[in-house]
Specification:
This protein is mostly helical. The chain has a domain of about 60 residues. It is built from 3 helices and no strands. The radius of gyration is 24 Å and the shape is flat. About 0% of the residues are buried. Pfam families: DUF6587. This is Transmembrane protein. It comes from Cupriavidus basilensis.
C-alpha cells in the first residue's frame, strides 16, 4: 500500500464522518445540544480548569432564542408576531394566501 492510498483511506472516511455529523446537527439540533451538554459535563462542567474549561465553554449549550430554537413551549410560539399582518390581501385572494404574478421579461 502506497502512502497515497493510506492517506486516501484515512481522509475519505473522515470527510464522510464530518458530513454525517453536519447533517445530524442540522436536522437534530436538540440531540446535538444534549450530546454537547453531556460531553461538557463529563469534562468537568463548571469546575473544569485549563484547556478543559475552554472546551466546556465551547461545548456548553447556548441560550436558545427565536423561532428556530426548536422549543415548543407557549413562549416560543410567537413566530407569527414577527410577520406583518397589516398588509391587505389582493382582491379575490383569501387571507393567508400569497398572490403569484408572472411577468414576462423583455
Amino acid at each position: 500500500m502506497s502512502l497515497y492510498h493510506a492517506f486516501e483511506a484515512l481522509l475519505v472516511p473522515l470527510i464522510v464522518l464530518a458530513c454525517a455529523v453536519s447533517v445530524a446537527a442540522r436536522y437534530a439540533p436538540r440531540t446535538r445540544e444534549r450530546l454537547k451538554a453531556g460531553l461538557a459535563a463529563r469534562l468537568g462542567g463548571g469546575a473544569a480548569t485549563g484547556w478543559r474549561q475552554r472546551a466546556v465553554a465551547w461545548l456548553a449549550p447556548q441560550a436558545a432564542a427565536g423561532c428556530a430554537s426548536g422549543c415548543d413551549s407557549g413562549g416560543c410560539n410567537t413566530c407569527g408576531s414577527s410577520t406583518t399582518d397589516a398588509a391587505q390581501p389582493a382582491p379575490g385572494a383569501r387571507a393567508g394566501e400569497q398572490v403569484i404574478r408572472f411577468v414576462a421579461k423583455r
